[in-house]
């Protein structure tokens, strides 16, 4: 009852974009934004005017920054994994580092996580698909924090030889 979840895709903005706008333009800190949603916590310490301020800021974000269409936004974050090896086998297997764009069809040797929400996009032993590569590029472009790989910029990925 104290959580307010808002899907942002209908206005043409990723949740992480709305999260950043609320923080930077309106000095409103919410819990998180992912590629399609934001989550705000309301508590006993919040006053009616605080909630009205949040609602007003959301309306203004829509008016000022909304693109009116979700045409170029990803609709779904979950990508069904294609498990080729167990995580243990992948961990101990020989690997090499390649540019992300050259890894389609290869088996990943490390984790790739997008925060928020912090759920792995790739885990050791999973096959890298063109859709996963597209997702990684998209999430980086939208400002999501990507973690896990040896390369902190996630330009390169370790893959099984």
Walk me through the topology.
Elements: E1 3-7, H1 15-26, E2 32-33, E3 37-41, H2 48-65, H3 87-92, E4 95-99, E5 112-115, E6 119-122, H4 130-142, E7 145-147, E8 156-160
Antiparallel strand pairs: 1-3, 2-3, 4-8, 5-6, 5-7
Helix pairs in contact: 1-2
Kindly summarize this structure in a few lines:
Helix 1 crosses helix 2 (48-65). The chain has two domains: 3-65; 87-160, Alpha-Beta Complex (Ornithine Decarboxylase, Chain A, domain 4), CATH 3.90.100.10. The protein has 161 residues and is of the alpha+beta class.
What name goes with the CATH superfamily of the largest domain? Orn/Lys/Arg decarboxylase, C-terminal domain
Helix and strand succession?
Answer: EHEEHHEEEHEE
Computed Rg: 18 Å
How much of the sequence is in beta strands? 15-25%
Choose one word for the global shape. Answer: elongated
Overall number of strands = 8
Determine the N-to-C terminus distance: 50 Å
Helix share bin: 25-40%
* Major sheet: 3 strands, antiparallel
Strand order of the largest sheet: 1-3-2
Count of alpha/pi helices:
4
At CATH level 3, the topology of the largest domain is Ornithine Decarboxylase, Chain A, domain 4
Overall CATH architecture of the largest domain: Alpha-Beta Complex
Structural domain tally: 2
Content-based structural category: alpha+beta
The CATH class of the largest domain: Alpha Beta
Query: Which stretches of 5+ consecutive residues score pLDDT under 50?
Result: none
Report the average pLDDT across residues.
89
